[in-house]
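Thought: the user asked what YbaK/EbsC family protein looks like in 3D. I have the sequence; next I should run the structure tool and report back without guessing.
Action: structure_tool
Action Input:
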Amino acid sequence: METAHNTVARLSAQFDLRPAASAPELLAAPTAAALPTVTGEVEVFAIDPVIADTAALLAATGLGPETSANCVLVAGSRSGEERIAACLVLAHTRADVNKRVKKLLDVRKASFLTMDRAVGESGMEYGGIGPIGLPENYRILIDSRVAEADALIIGSGIRGSKLLLSGPTLASLPAAEVIEGLANEID
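Observation:
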């Protein structure tokens, strides 16, 4: 298991870590606009877009899956009202969409947003979607294991960079809800 210090050291050896606020060119516009609402340190580093997907990034850096969190967008409806949530889970887990998320959204059926819709509504690139800068009507559901992590890699909104921040920083996002058991381990 990686410590926060080891994660930062490995990333610093391979990438130029910078305060995210000083590098808006490495962020999607909605992410850059929402950055001032984030409490805590957020760093950004440029990557080759070819390694933007979690498995490729972890293989390239040698980091374990506990150092990366994925953000998936899920929707469902009840009585004609659509309910959307961004679910943030560790890379070695999967959001429990069919039970936990469905119950939290109070919908009959929950499903992932299509790629076109996720990209169009978030203003972010597929493979780079993160919770910072999502539309205000999206709930942000964070698995408790994510909220407890000392150092995490998440999407910056573009495939050409990633953010590095702590779980408590993510949990402090204005719309964040920390949920116990939001995700299940991948077999």
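Thought: the tool returned a structure. Summarizing for the user.
Final Answer: Structure for YbaK/EbsC family protein predicted. The CA atoms of residues 78 and 107 lie 5 Å apart. Helices lie at 4-14, 29-34, 54-61, 97-105, 115-122, 144-148, 167-171.
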